[in-house]
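User: quick one
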Amino acid sequence: MENKKENFSEWYNEIVESAGLIDKRYPIKGMNIWMPYGLKVALNFDENVRRLCDAKGLNEVSFPLLITRKQLNVEFEHLKGFEKQVFWITKGGTDKLDEEMSLRPTSESAMYPMFAMWIRTHGDLPLKLYQLVSVYRYETKHTRPFLRDREFRFFEAHTAHRNYQEAEAEIVEYLDIWKSLSDILCVPYVLHRRPEWDKFAGAEYSNAADTFLPSNRSLQVATFHQYGTNFSKPYDITYVNEAGEKEYVHQTTYGMSSRLIGALVGIHGDDKGLILPPDLAPTQVIIIPIPSEKSDTLKYSMNLEKILSSKGIRARVDSRDSYTPGYKYNDWEMRGVPVRIEVGEREVAANTATIAMRVEKGKKTVGLKDLEDSVRDSLRRVKEIITDKAVKQMKKIIKEAAGLNDLIAWKGPSLSYWCGLRECSDHIEEKSEKVCLGYRIDVESAGNCVVCGKEGRLATFSRTY
Amino acid sequence: MENKKENFSEWYNEIVESAGLIDKRYPIKGMNIWMPYGLKVALNFDENVRRLCDAKGLNEVSFPLLITRKQLNVEFEHLKGFEKQVFWITKGGTDKLDEEMSLRPTSESAMYPMFAMWIRTHGDLPLKLYQLVSVYRYETKHTRPFLRDREFRFFEAHTAHRNYQEAEAEIVEYLDIWKSLSDILCVPYVLHRRPEWDKFAGAEYSNAADTFLPSNRSLQVATFHQYGTNFSKPYDITYVNEAGEKEYVHQTTYGMSSRLIGALVGIHGDDKGLILPPDLAPTQVIIIPIPSEKSDTLKYSMNLEKILSSKGIRARVDSRDSYTPGYKYNDWEMRGVPVRIEVGEREVAANTATIAMRVEKGKKTVGLKDLEDSVRDSLRRVKEIITDKAVKQMKKIIKEAAGLNDLIAWKGPSLSYWCGLRECSDHIEEKSEKVCLGYRIDVESAGNCVVCGKEGRLATFSRTY
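Assistant: Done. Structure below.
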């Protein structure tokens, strides 16, 4: 296997396939096959998204994949270059279609004409919807699994509210959901207010969660947009308020994608392979029987699987008889299973199980009555360890720049004061290839712009994916 | 609401929207919006599909939506008219694509080139995969929600085996899965061997499950295809057997779609609205507090919800205060919730709950300690009642034809002996508009063909969706 530290990019490309997440050999660039193991990780994530969204009163819907040119034209007003990113269907069978239709690049233009029909009075608000779908972008840049695909899994929440304040409150709710998800992913992040020129077209402002890969590049993993009335006006989404007057709704969106799978692969993995967060691992505990002539280690293993499964732990016996235990250890380490149980004749004789973690050396042997607790404890430990490691890594990668030279010298992300002007961030980009991710939202700290010296706030500059 | 008996078609079109399953107003013909309530029914169904498939050793994957013309060309060899049913992408952004790509109409041509890479030796077999995706057909006929859409939810299992017998055994497994699903849907069916000219292009044979709607038309709800080596040869899917020789794999598929949602709507509903099978109902028990000045019926209702939810029953309080209990009863009857609990001051005072079923008159009042059992019992009863009713309906609709005149006189499906020749079934179609669904698989009964008088087997003739 490639060495992660020395060649992150090659290591990453290898691991996504060898761990069984995807197969890249599908004949269309940027469109990969989700293999059973990778798909289970994604579905486990979706299940958590649904649980958290439902608890916040968001309702799941599913809009059609196709969007007519007429629908999209409203959005093209906002963003001229957008059309270039869209796949177009021009033929049905052998007929030329009267109107071209696009594959959804995102669903504003699919949803908002319907919002205009659904919303009549203040009693219809807030309207809070989300969907889990695939989206399509005609990427001309180099593609990379999960990080830049032409087809990717997407979560998009769209809400409509009576006023700006209520829309603002929704964005706070989004952050709650995101915080829970980042905890499940064990992926730390920094929140930025994107610069004006980098916000989503049509947004009042865009907040984004960025994480950082060992390549020292940032990866946008979630976005939270305040649309104000910028979409409700062109799409004519109005409601009658308590006073009987017609008003435009205020809207927000929250987006995430299968980039998150890329983030967890890149951040947690090591030279042995993947390391999966226990909450998302398809198999949390792999049980490996060590063949023995004295005792039935397979039968005993099956019993352990039964005990753990009945407690809601995703445990599985590797019963393949054509592989040695050593081969199996490596195989499951490569696939990132958090906890391993070894069953030899000693364990069978003493009614015990020997537990090992993916992320720490050493094993412990426990009696069956302590099995569930010990396994849960090990899963918790794995989660703690990989979270701590990821947080430390991120802190190490992001360096505070003492000045412009310092900022330029360090190839990774830099923290620095910035006045907010594009010419200053352009100057930085020119000298360092690092773009401005925006002001840090979580810190209020004033200082002098690293370029022009005028008053500024703390911002992050980074090369990005 | 429309009268189901008198005008099934209008009743159906109305109910799918008024019960909140879908919204048909999306601006593309045959592509509808899955509303929260309808989507939950579909997701509950998917969850059951996953559980049953996983138990049979089928693994879930997700293949890209797009298929190149080159990939599809292999399949066009089998089926000349197929190209007419496909949507084609010809542009990415403003670029004309080098090669046209289609939206998946089904995934043989996406999957099988990969099967050829994945399968090497007999140890790689059986390969058993499935996916839950949306598929796209350029329908030129009149569309109807769930029954004939241009975008619909689809289940497709694809397996590869060492020989014909093992492929045959897989089809038996499919039938097990389907039987469990039809039980969950409370939808009865008849199994047919499709006539040669109506089998899936490239299949050795196609078996299909057909159900019958109150319109007296049949609806194909599941198909099970034996491909033999008809796909493995053009796609070159081979394996090395135990003797070291190269052999072609034998393949099968199993398909189902969101037509099943159409089937349960059409079969179970009545003039009050939808009736949902308890296993699929998003809300199994709706709890309605009757406002009272003497007691807090809402708080008491919330407690019932908590008790039932903790037992894994999908219960929900309707706490809307702008609607009367009567309005709410009608509303939830329309949405097909199987069981209703009414909470008035009498129930609060006596620590009881009054339970009503969607499908039977009468109520019963039970003490809290019997709540869970009584609710489970009511859910079970609803399932029994709607299943029995559906079976009786189907038996009534399908009539045994005493002779050709009899067959022609009855507009609904007819059972009759048939020799297997196309000219005989064409004759029937010409006279009655009923097509041959094929021989009944489940009955072995010989008799004289209703047209030519030669030896034949029992077959069904029906107008179809």
